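Incident review: delayed structure delivery

Summary: a single-chain prediction request sat in the queue longer than the usual turnaround. Root cause was a stuck worker, restarted by the on-call engineer. No data loss occurred. The affected request and its eventual output are reproduced below so the record is complete for anyone auditing the incident later.

Affected input:
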Amino acid sequence: MSESNDLNTLHARFRGFYPVVIDVETAGFNAKGDALLEIAAVTVKMSEAGWLEKDETLHYHVEPFEGANLQPEALAFNGIDPWNPLRGAVKEYDALHAIFKAVRKGMKESGCSRAIVVAHNATFDHSFLMAAAERAGLKRNPFHPFVTFDTAAMSGLVLGQTVLAKACVAGGIPFDNSQAHSALYDTEQTADLFCELVNRWKRLGGWPPEPLPTADAGDSAPC
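Output delivered after worker restart:
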């Protein structure tokens, strides 16, 4: 593989990290005590020309874990009835086991060494993912324990917007507010946004990176 083609790979572009876009719907803000109710994950891939694209989508409704808190305000906000049998909800273990299995497969195929959560206001989604994995006793968690890619921060820098819907519109991505607060829809839109932000940097000439000029011996050290 040539050096140019090697730079057009996930492992080269993200320093060995395998980005996975995650969104969760929950019954509150406390990852340790409030229920995880829905989770979606979108993996990404790199084209031969080095453009980031969506790849596989996984989506699960999740049963509240035993003893979980269900905050009425949170349920009113996301419109989820945790006990509706039509949800087809599965246990936390089953949802995360399936996601982790697909992520590990993608990591192996792309030559990446660790998965990284990509999310909008990523600390929230990352905390619920990690807490659920711990409760489920999943020892082979492929995700980095604290590093994330936050599309809210990235969008604030690139697009001047931090709200997901506004950032998508600013990035030329349609956003249907009537479908918002569904983990599946929000994850798909966040994945489109993440790909646009990465690809926009490439279109602007920021990737592959230009080598820094070599300083002469008499030059002062850069700041």
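Verification: The longest strand covers residues 36-46.
Action items: add queue-age alerting; document worker restart procedure.
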